[in-house]
Structure formats: C-alpha cells, structure tokens
Amino acid sequence: MDAAAVVMMIVALVTVWGGLIAALIHLARHPEDASE
C-alpha cells in the first residue's frame, strides 16, 4: 500500500469510529424518551 492509500484508510477509520463515539456520547448525555 502506498502512502496515499494508508492516509485515506486512516481518514476513513477516524470518520467511522469518531462518528460512532460521538453518537454514543450524545446518547449518553441526551437519552431518548421511551414513553411511547
């Protein structure tokens, strides 16, 4: 793998895992109402 491929892979992993972590933090701070 050349350097560009490694950089793009790292960017993709950070985007996916960062989004997942951000979603988990958001749900922990603002839980959904289960009153339905």
Automatic annotation (TrEMBL):
Q: According to the entry, what is the taxonomic lineage of the organism?
A: Bacteria, Bacillati, Actinomycetota, Actinomycetes, Micrococcales
**Classification via NCBIfam families:** MetS_like_NSS
Has keyword Transmembrane?
yes
Q: Which protein are we looking at? A: Methionine/alanine import family NSS transporter small subunit
Q: Which UniProt keywords apply?
A: Membrane, Transmembrane, Transmembrane helix
Q: Where are the transmembrane segments?
A: 6-28
What InterPro entries does its record include? MaAIMP_sms
